[in-house]
Amino acid sequence: MRYISTRGDAPVLSFDQVLLAGLAEDGGLYVPESWPQFTADDLRAMRGLTYPELAIRVMTPFIGDRIDPAEFAAIVHETYDDFGHPAVAPMVQLGPNFWLLELFHGPTLAFKDVAMQLLGRLFDHLLSKRGERITIVGATSGDTGAAAIEACRGRSAIEIFMLYPHERVSDVQRRQMTTVDAPNVHTIAVEGTFDDCQDLIKAMFNDTGLRNELKLSAVNSINWARVMAQIVYYFHAALALGAPDRKVNFAVPTGNFGNVYAGYAARAMGLPIDSFVVASNSNDILTRFFDSNDMSISGVEPTLSPSMDIQVSSNFERLLFDLLGRDGDAVKQAMAQFREKGTLPLDAAQWQTATELFTGYKVDDARTKQVIADIFAKTGVLLDPHSAVGVDAAAVRRPDGDDPLVALATAHPAKFPDAVESATGVRPELPARLADLHDRDEHMKILPNSLDALRDFVRETSELRGAA
Predict the structure, then answer these.
(1) From CA 32, how far away is CA 114, in angstroms rounded?
(2) What is Dmax (Cα atoms) for the chain?
(3) Annotation says 129 is catalytic
């Protein structure tokens, strides 16, 4: 398996190289040169596999011969043995042909664990074999940071710096990052938005000298391995509901487009997915795009679902690459205009191609709270605000027909207890392993929205720790 950049100018890499590189040298994102294909018979043969067995089957084509099969299988089993539910990603029925896929049973109670726990172990495995160290820098709108830190804490080959927007994540989300007391973990609160954090990370990667000096790598969803691991749960859900002999639809709450892009990848591999509902909160750039070909940047509005408080959806570039005929130069020009003018130029035919598969829907905070209350009253299921956005979008934009519709539940309700309690009168409790979270000491560095300040802090800390 070979990987190419969406902007066409970076070297073609193998899986292990893509894993460690994260962002391509030309500023693009890596994607497979071609998609592995599973036939209907292949899919039927996957029915009844455990989640780890299915994960090995789905991901192995992306890895090729870069990791020994037995070693990869051991890594996968170790990853998902650490989840709090034996099914890893169980499904709950909300109504006729309407299902909730629970992706929050990992160590940090968010769907990011599904990929991040694997990613940390893959990093550790490859770096140990090479006798190398890396410096991971990442940005989070809430959940990625905790998942990345949990996956990398205490690993001798990794120094990790995680940025989050100061005072723009929930108390639980912040504490899951700042209470980790590990010498290789550094949490940074940036005085700005998530998009500011994301821009700082991209600027660091675009500084080739700094990138090479610190051996920078990424764990954000720009890292292909993150997407690869998320593809698995689409197979898991669809097979449980009758695929390949039955089509399935998915509703996905998303801000950065990585979660729903993994579903797009699963469909490209042969999984019979009929449509995707892309669910947004008030930061509705994706909804505006799918509704009216309006991908224009506006201000970021804080909401009850902070992990989706994003206006620049980085992973959309991977879909754009296909919409523009896999033309790296065209992607480069489009992204340059997007950055310069704040709008993405797509002609009507290209936009129409996207809307044949994707629809968008926006859910504001008032409606989010109402959905949490309604679902609890009808089913007894507590939803976090992000999952509620997905459930409402699914209900409103549900496609015609009897094919099942799966809404992705992306976070445990206890990560957002204030919002859930306000809507239902019930305050969700943290699982036992996190019960003392609010009693733990916090460790963080507050920095201005400045590349110089961030670069100096990472360099000085890495030199002090001997990571560079």
Answers:
(1) 20
(2) 61
(3) no
Contact 296, 325 (CB under 8 A): no
SS3 13: strand
Residue 468 has pLDDT above 70, yes or no: no
Q: Comparing C-alpha atoms, which of 34, 59, 33 is closest to residue 46?
A: 59
Please give the C-alpha separations between residue 9 and each of 26, 209, 226, 327, in angstroms, as whole numbers: 6, 18, 22, 11
Count CB atoms within 10 A of the CB of residue 19: 27
Name the catalytic one among 112, 202, 247, 332: 112
Of 359, 443, 375, the C-alpha closest to 413 is 375
Q: How many residues does the chain have?
A: 468
Kindly give, in sequence order, each residue whose CB lies less than 8 Å from that of residue 377, ignoring residues fewer than 6 positions away.
none
DSSP structure class, residue 445 = E
CA distance 98 to 398: 10
The residue with tokens 């400045």 is: 450
How does strand 248-253 pair with strand 273-280?
Answer: parallel
Q: Residue 119: helix, strand or coil by DSSP?
A: helix
Coil, strand or helix: which one is 81?
A: helix
Locate the domains of the chain by residue range: 81-110+224-424
Q: Is the separation of the CB atoms in 134 and 20 below 8 Å?
A: yes
The answer to whether 210 and 204 are in contact (CB under 8 A) is: yes
Do the strands 185-191 and 216-217 form a parallel or antiparallel pair, or are they unpaired? unpaired
- Chain centroid to Cα 31, Å, comes to 15
Q: pLDDT exceeding 70 applies to what percent of the chain?
A: 99
Angle, vertex CA 447, rays to CA 118 and CA 207, nearest 5: 65
pTM score of the predicted model: 0.92
With cut-offs at 50, 70 and 90, classify the pLDDT of residue 75: very high
Omega before 244 within 30 of 0, i.e. cis: yes
pLDDT tens sequence across 175-216: 999 999 999 999 999 999 988 998 999 899 889 899 899 999
Task: Compute the distance between CA of residue 335 and CA of residue 329 in angstroms, rounded to an integer.
Answer: 10
Q: What's the pLDDT tens digit per position in 366-408?
A: 999 999 999 999 999 999 999 999 999 999 998 888 899 999 9
CATH of 81-110+224-424, one of 3.40.640.10, 3.20.20.30, 3.40.50.1100, 1.10.1670.10: 3.40.50.1100
